[in-house]
Amino acid sequence: MEFENIETITLLGAGSMGHGIAEVAALAGYEVRLRDIKTEFVENGYEQLVWSLDKLAEKDQISEEEADAAADRVTPLVDVKEAVDDTDVVIEAVPEKMEIKKDVYSEVETYAPDRTIFATNTSSLSITDLSEVTDRPEQFCGMHFFNPPVRMQLVEVITGSHTAESTLDAVEQLAEAFGKTPIRVHKDSPGFIVNRILVPLMNETCWMVSDDEATVAEIDSTTKFDMGLPMGAFELGDQVGNDVTYHVLQYLQEVLGDAYEPAPFLKETVDAERYGKKSGEGFYDYENGGVDIPTDAGSEDTKVRLAAVMANEVGHLVENDVSNPSDIDEAVMLGAGFPDGPAKLADNIGLDRLVETLESLGEEDGHARFEVSEALREAAQQGGFYGESDTDETRSYSTIDLSYPGDMVGHIELSREARMNTVNSEMLDELGDALAEFENDDEVRGVLITGKGDRAFSAGADVSSMASSASPLDGIELSRKGQSTFGAFEESPLPIVAAIDGFALGGGFELAMCCDYRLASERSELGLPEHNLGLLPGWGGTQRLQRLVGMSRAKEIIFTAERFDADTMYEYDVVNEVVENDQFEERAHELAAEMAGGPPVSRALTKQVMLKGAEDLDAGLELEAQAFGHLLGTDDLMEGITAFMGDSEPEFEGK
Ligand SMILES: C/C=C/C(=O)SCCNC(=O)CCNC(=O)[C@H](O)C(C)(C)COP(=O)(O)OP(=O)(O)OC[C@H]1O[C@@H](n2cnc3c(N)ncnc32)[C@H](O)[C@@H]1OP(=O)(O)O
């Protein structure tokens, strides 16, 4: 089955994953059949799907017409023959029990056409074993979505022992057509990528409590506030379901050995039926207060130990040819919302330190989980999973992507999509370096900044680690760092376009304020919500906004902390231009290209003179005169005048 020919998709199982995937497929324009074993199950799934589409429309992420059209593309069914008759792809999301899945595949095999691809959404079972129940193991692979599918970007595409390359290609292209990011898992290995990192992490935290080495509060404070994970490790465990984590660990132990033995504290919790949120109690008691994580109880030792355990898993995945560090990082960021992937986190701490940590824990405790993987040792010798990258001539970036789309434009894409492209300290460093790289590149005459995905330009500073590092001196340093990085954009000789599609909030908006031109798609919302957090716009917003819109309007925007739509921000003179959503990309490039095509020297001087003169007219006028004089001696002036006289387009060289 070629991707281009896929039109109809059958979802087997209308539970939370099944109806969620059906919704994603329908939104992408496919005809979808949603099937479950009982009418009430399938009706319930369909109702939830419609509810979720309505929510997207309410939040203006899609129009009401798009929501209705997507709902109309889904046919709820109970009859399996009808569900798979003449379908192109079957995505199975029935309960995670080998026997149930095998029964389903035997039945589906009878009715599905020969061309149909089978993809299982299993999170833990063997793809190879499942594929062997069918007569088409080469047309069978894993397609593992994350919950909720409509929001989570990642799809792990897993190869079984018999899967054909063409099947994987088609399923990856299908995931892309769904608007998702597929990451190939090259081997059918338990836990694939994301769970293989997360489950040992959660188990280690339970071992630490079992051995009285840390408390739940200390560990969750470390993971949430010091490591910046979206939630505490125990909070995450409760969310996933402690019984689920326990069973996955038992499976990992059975297949991979005792390094994955479930910790006694986890077993006790499961034995006491404290399964987590779904049962009302887990590590936290949801009927009495729920999750309560102190911001300041974290410890560096805990952070290093947990990073070491995850780095060891990265090593196992690498040495077993399941994946590579950069795919692992991307998968964990997109699938689990980590601010950095485990390999990057490990490199930042230093692999030698992590290897020593594992070795010394192994000597004290002797447990198999501390045995250092060969790939981790090798990476440590090479200076990191990513090698000693910063000594290379070419800088590699992890929070932003740089590209050269042509027309002398350098493109910076803020690239922390799972976190709404929020700005952390590393992104500030990388933004500064990227700008310098473009400024030193003769081929770049203009810069375009966008945010990855269609949800946000940037939702501002990443606040997840702010509460723990709440020292006033750290705050001053962070504010100064953002001010100086963003200030470099304002002062850059290059013309810079901020193209905003989605949210531009807090620091994201402050970055856009430093650009020369702000383009926004219709669906965009801009604002400074810092007052909602008890902060103030600390990356130049208190100063630059009043210069843009006047004192009174600036106070309105800052004090109300509201989000303003693109049209309102156009009226307020914040945004230069608003475009329809589907014209956004083309217009953004067109504008940046237009800016890049102008005379470099006069534009750089104009920027400088306007900025310097903003506060002092006399100084500004004097600078203007000096700049004017300087321009009279440039080749570009000659080119401009010659082109004007000859009625042609000037080709400025910046000389
Ligand atoms: C000096 C500079 C200071 C500042 O910039 S302070 C920060 C100012 N910015 C904000 O206060 C914005 C906070 N974010 C929001 O209000 C909402 O988000 C949005 C309106 C942007 C989007 O809302 P929705 O569509 O409901 O998405 P979601 O589930 O809230 O966000 C998706 C994921 O993105 C994370 N996230 C969003 N903004 C931030 C942030 N500023 N810092 C850290 N994480 C953020 C969330 O937590 C979540 O993550 P998960 O999927 O893991 O739950």
From TrEMBL:
EC number: 4.2.1.17
InterPro entries per record: 3-OHacyl-CoA_DH_NAD-bd, 3HC_DH_C, 6-PGluconate_DH-like_C_sf, 6PGD_dom2, ClpP/crotonase-like_dom_sf, Enoyl-CoA_hyd/isom_CS, Enoyl-CoA_hydra/iso, FA_oxidation_alpha_subunit
Swiss-Prot/TrEMBL GO biological process terms: fatty acid beta-oxidation
Entries under Pfam families matching the protein: 3HCDH, 3HCDH_N, ECH_1
Domain 3-hydroxyacyl-CoA dehydrogenase NAD binding: 8-188
Record flagged with keyword Lyase: yes
Pathway stated in the Swiss-Prot or TrEMBL entry: Lipid metabolism; fatty acid beta-oxidation
Lineage: superkingdom: Archaea
Residue ranges of every copy of the 3-hydroxyacyl-CoA dehydrogenase C-terminal domain listed in the record: 191-286, 305-383
Keyword S-adenosyl-L-methionine belongs to the record: no
Gene3D superfamilies with a match to the protein in the record: 2-enoyl-CoA Hydratase, Chain A, domain 1, N-(1-d-carboxylethyl)-l-norvaline Dehydrogenase, domain 2, NAD(P)-binding Rossmann-like Domain
Record-level Gene Ontology MF annotations: enoyl-CoA hydratase activity; long-chain (3S)-3-hydroxyacyl-CoA dehydrogenase (NAD+) activity; NAD+ binding
Segment forming the signal sequence: none
Record key words, sorted: Fatty acid metabolism, Lipid metabolism, Lyase, Multifunctional enzyme, NAD, Oxidoreductase
Family affiliation: In the N-terminal section; belongs to the enoyl-CoA hydratase/isomerase family. In the central section; belongs to the 3-hydroxyacyl-CoA dehydrogenase family.
PANTHER family reported in the protein's UniProt record: TRIFUNCTIONAL ENZYME SUBUNIT ALPHA, TRIFUNCTIONAL ENZYME SUBUNIT ALPHA, MITOCHONDRIAL
Protein's UniProt name: enoyl-CoA hydratase
Native source organism of the sequence: Halosegnis rubeus
